[in-house]
Write a structure and sequence with these properties.
Elements lengths: L11 E3 L5 E9 L8 E17 L5 E7 L2 E5 L2 E5 L4 E4 L5 E5 L5 E8 L6
Antiparallel strand pairs: 1-2, 2-3, 3-8, 3-9, 4-7, 4-9, 5-6, 5-8
Amino acid sequence: MKIIDYREVAPRELTSAAMHGVTGRVVLGKADGADNFCMRVIEVAPGGVIPPHTHPWEHEQFIHAGRGRILRDGAWTDIGPGNVLLIPADVEHHIENTGGEPLVIVCLVPNFAPEL
């Protein structure tokens, strides 16, 4: 059993040509003996962007803090604390922080997906 404060895990900056202001932490993963899922905490800084992308696995997300929006089916949907998202495999998604504080997202992915 593992019990930690997620902030004990050092954040790793996530970058791509269009991504900015995004860090991730693997808080539960293979190194912890988690055989089926990986739990990540993604933080998007104010004005930060996770650009449009897809991947061949579903993932579940819980919005812990902050305000943002997600592009789905060509329309923006506002997201904030308490929202739960199911993003199916191969569905394009794009997240932006629209608030003045970090958008904190708890994200679960299956064991075959990259941890970060």
